[in-house]
Design brief:
metal ion binding, 50% strand, six-stranded antiparallel sheet, Pirin, Pirin_N_dom, RmlC-like_jellyroll, four-stranded antiparallel sheet, Pirin N-terminal domain-containing protein, 205 residues
């Protein structure tokens, strides 16, 4: 199964605490064999699993057994060490999704391992909808705790819509385009491209 890694890239290694952005599919698992990732370890980071189609079975050394399904967040904290496996299920025909990785700050690098599952409700926008799985956007706040202030959301736009979102100007923001072409503050972006907005400069004293 082909995975496209859009972060880090030559021009940028991090967006805030987001350190990896992997995007895969749409992938016909009858041709590729799907996702078969045997147990492997992680330390000092969190993995954010988010699907657009298909289903993945997750098991880890904490004892968690869960499924990753479209519109549902699975957040695993590696902390001082965790091992997990990810396998697409027999019910999956088309596998399509993203896995985002978060670098833990130094003081929390050895935090206890953890696993969180959350199903965010769709938030209507003027020209689309959002599902906020981490942080706050469009008046909705995810209950999932993080070690660094973060924003993570899937935004689906109507064709031809123009949407303005109020975001924290102190944050770095990235937009990973999955399907279709968009203009981000005048910059054209195509699928699997990453648009980046730096934080606003602090006001002069």
């Amino acid at each position: 199964m082909r995975v496209r890694r859009t972060l880090p890239q030559r021009a940028r290694s991090l967006i805030g605490a987001w350190c990896f952005a992997d995007h895969y599919g749409p992938d016909d698992v009858t041709d590729s064999g799907g996702m078969v990732v045997p147990p492997h370890p992680h330390t000092g980071l969190q993995t954010v699993s988010w699907l657009f189609s298909g289903e993945i079975e997750h098991r880890d050394s904490l004892g968690s057994h869960a499924f990753v399904r479209p519109g549902e967040l699975n957040l695993m904290t590696g902390g001082h060490g965790i091992s997990h496996s990810e396998v697409s299920t027999r019910n999956t025909r088309i596998l399509h999704g993203a896995q985002l990785w978060v670098a833990l700050p130094g003081e929390h690098r050895d935090a206890p391992r953890d696993f969180q599952h959350h199903v965010p409700a769709p938030v209507p926008l003027d020209g689309g909808e959002a599902r906020v799985f981490l942080g706050t956007l469009a008046g909705d706040t995810s209950p999932v705790p993080t070690f660094t202030p973060l924003l993570g959301a899937e935004i689906t736009l109507d064709p031809g819509a123009a949407v303005t979102l109020a975001v924290d100007p102190a944050f770095e923001h990235g937009v990973l385009v999955d399907t279709g072409d968009i203009l981000l503050t005048g910059t054209p972006l195509k699928p699997a491209e990453l648009g980046y907005t730096p934080p606003a400069a602090p006001p002069s004293p």
